[in-house]
């Protein structure tokens, strides 16, 4: 196998590359500034040789960017399966908020991904380039939410008098804001037990309840 692009099918990523991706994820979880981390630190954590990393990647930035894209793809693939297990939009929403509350590795990777959408580092530019590639289309978060909301609209659970993309924006923005609140909870004067039902009610009211005219 040649150089890794980060756009490979998630089931075909070589085991040693998965270990590298896991090392990046671990550092993100620990709050490390991965823009300044050394390749040797990544390979040591992954338990592989430094030369092995360069068999698959040309630069550290490529390793980190591909790892972020990979973990987002894994998360979106997992979310798609879980969404289809839920009986209603309200249940799906409750499930997503549960996942954010747990602060698990999937959500941490997604939070890092969102951060990179507005960052100006070389890694962020690489991430944005990769997620706009055709090969990543089925994992792209906005496309995922658009597909799920369209299905809920067809079932009559969501309003039809709003543009679909607006509904995607409403859901996405609320979830990201809630995620930020969870990860910066100590800076808030409002406890999460009070905030969560407000966020849930706000989304449902906006997307499900028609305005009284």
Notable traits:
213 residues, mainly alpha, 10 helices, 66% helix, 0% strand, globular
Topology:
Layout: H1 15-29, H2 39-46, H3 50-56, H4 60-83, H5 89-101, H6 105-116, H7 122-131, H8 141-154, H9 164-183, H10 192-208
Helix pairs in contact: 1-2, 1-4, 1-6, 4-6, 4-7, 5-9, 8-9, 9-10
How would you portray this structure in words?
- This protein is an all-alpha fold.
- It has 10 helices and no strands.
- The longest helix has 24 residues, at 60-83.
- The mean pLDDT is 85.
> How many DSSP E strands?
0
Q: Report, as a whole number of angstroms, the end-to-end distance.
A: 61 Å
Instruction: Classify the oligomer.
Output: single chain
Q: Can you tell me the overall shape? A: globular
The fraction of residues assigned to DSSP E strands is under 5%
Radius of gyration (CA) equals 19 Å
Query: What's the helix-strand series?
Result: HHHHHHHHHH
Low-confidence stretches: none
**What can be said about the biggest beta sheet?**
none
Helix content: 55-70%
The number of helical runs is 10
Structural class by secondary-structure content = mainly alpha
Overall pLDDT: 85
């Amino acid at each position: 196998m040649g150089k890794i692009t980060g756009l490979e099918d998630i089931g075909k990523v070589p085991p040693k590359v998965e270990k590298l991706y896991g090392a990046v994820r671990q550092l993100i979880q620990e709050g490390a500034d991965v823009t300044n981390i050394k390749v040797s630190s990544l390979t040591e954590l992954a338990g592989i040789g430094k030369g092995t990393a360069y068999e698959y990647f040309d630069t550290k930035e490529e390793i980190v960017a591909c790892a972020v894209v990979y973990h987002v793809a894994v998360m979106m693939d997992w979310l798609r399966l879980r969404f289809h297990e839920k009986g209603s939009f309200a249940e799906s929403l409750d499930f997503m908020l549960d996942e954010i509350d747990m602060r698990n590795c999937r959500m941490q990777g997604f939070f890092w991904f969102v951060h990179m959408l507005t960052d100006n580092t070389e890694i962020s530019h690489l991430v944005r380039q990769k997620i706009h590639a055709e090969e990543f289309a089925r994992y792209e978060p906005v496309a995922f939410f658009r597909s799920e909301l369209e299905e809920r609209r067809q079932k009559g659970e969501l309003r039809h008098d709003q543009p679909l993309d607006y509904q995607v924006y409403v859901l996405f923005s609320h979830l990201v804001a809630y995620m930020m609140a969870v990860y910066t909870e100590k800076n808030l004067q409002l406890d999460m037990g009070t905030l969560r039902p407000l966020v849930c009610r706000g989304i449902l009211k906006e997307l499900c309840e028609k305005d009284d005219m």
